[in-house]
Amino acid sequence: MFKYNLMHHWRSLVSGVETKIPLKNGQMTTYINFDNAATTPPLLSVLEEVVAFSPWYSSIHRGTGYKSQLSSDRYEKSRELIGHFVGADLEKNTVIFLKNATEAINKLSYRLSNQSPNPVVLSSFMEHHSNDLPWRDKYRVDYVDIKENGCLSLEDLEHKLIHYKGEVKLVAITGASNVTGCKNPINRIANIVHQYGAQLLVDGAQLIPHAPFYMSSSNPLENPDYLVFSAHKMYAPFGIGVLIAPKDVFRQGPPEYVGGGTVELVTHDHIKWADVPNREEAGSPNILGVVALTAAMKTLNEIGMEHIDRHEQSLTRYTLEKLNSISDITVYGDMTLKNRVGIISFNIEGLTHDLVAKILSDEGGIAVRNGCFCAQPYVQRLLGIPPDEVEKRKEDPTLFHPGMVRVSFGFYNTYREIDIFISLLKRIIQYKGYYVKKYTNHH
């Protein structure tokens, strides 16, 4: 009973979880959101804080009005709260606000490209496109391989660091996969990377909202150098991303976006750039986004990231046990993996991923995601698609694109929702022919 009451309380913290939606047959049902890896619903505390702050909203920095001073103070103090949430050393590091994690990685890719000739960046086979594409046009890029279970091969990481003989300047690795949920051992990876004179970027978009994470430990070799994450994946959908990085890195060279707020002194012949982080935040900043993110972090801290991690892992184990008992379902990645976030990708034999996702939505009001999840090389590898098949799709874009169905949990999801989901999956499998005919005729 205690556990139920605790889950019920957590659920009451999130906006929209009891929303009724229409099914294909016209009946109404409570929406089940298993698409949290894409974005999360807002916390009520976030919405309340944004509304409460709105009367005090004003342009920050250099304004002498009371509201401007108050807004400026709130904006700058938020960097400290955010840094503490992830255990960053704010004496050494700066907190830079951007639109999202993708923009944060792009910003870093521009800054580092100016600091050494023809450097090598190691990404990996399990990366989201946002931690792959920004490096390609500015660096020599190679990819750390994965093991059979879909997780990163630390042996191949070290092999490639040795192979490039000190030319690797950065290793860019996801904290947790948005396809298989696999968590990477960041401290071990940092230790390896630093032994070979490189730095480590952690894409924390799928990790920071779901598990405790600390950038600083007693062993500096085990600490990542850069961290990015997005507010909209941690219950604060107001358009803010965060890059935490060493101050010294961003004091070298001009920012890639320039304009208001980035300078201290300008003449027609001279520019004196502002200090970090202001020089990296051109234009009027999104202070409401910052207010939203800090409000979300306060609530997540009150719940406890350890409790969130434990609950979501329990939901994941429960779901995997149920899926494992159903014939015709293939789960990708390691089903026995204990160190993971609440993400599971699967397919049903004989049904396309898009059809399964549509049936779940139309017949059960269950939101999942399908496709390649902006991680096409990883999904192609997990599906075992040979290179010549990929080439065919390059030449003929009308060919069907392989993919998977993904469920992803938030701390507010429940075992009952999973039971509803599993029950519908069993029905889909039992009546495959009926559903294929129904949806083919419909289109």
From TrEMBL:
Pfam families in alphabetical order: Aminotran_5
Superkingdom of source: Bacteria
Keywords, comma-separated and alphabetical: Pyridoxal phosphate, Transferase
Transmembrane segments: none
Protein's UniProt keywords contain Translocase: no
Domain Aminotransferase class V: 32-421
The protein's enzyme class: transferase
Annotated InterPro entries: Aminotrans_V_dom, PyrdxlP-dep_Trfase, PyrdxlP-dep_Trfase_major, PyrdxlP-dep_Trfase_small
One of the record's GO molecular function terms: cysteine desulfurase activity
The protein's Enzyme Commission number: 2.8.1.7
Cofactor section: pyridoxal 5'-phosphate
UniProt key word tRNA-binding: no
Name under which the protein is recorded: Cysteine desulfurase
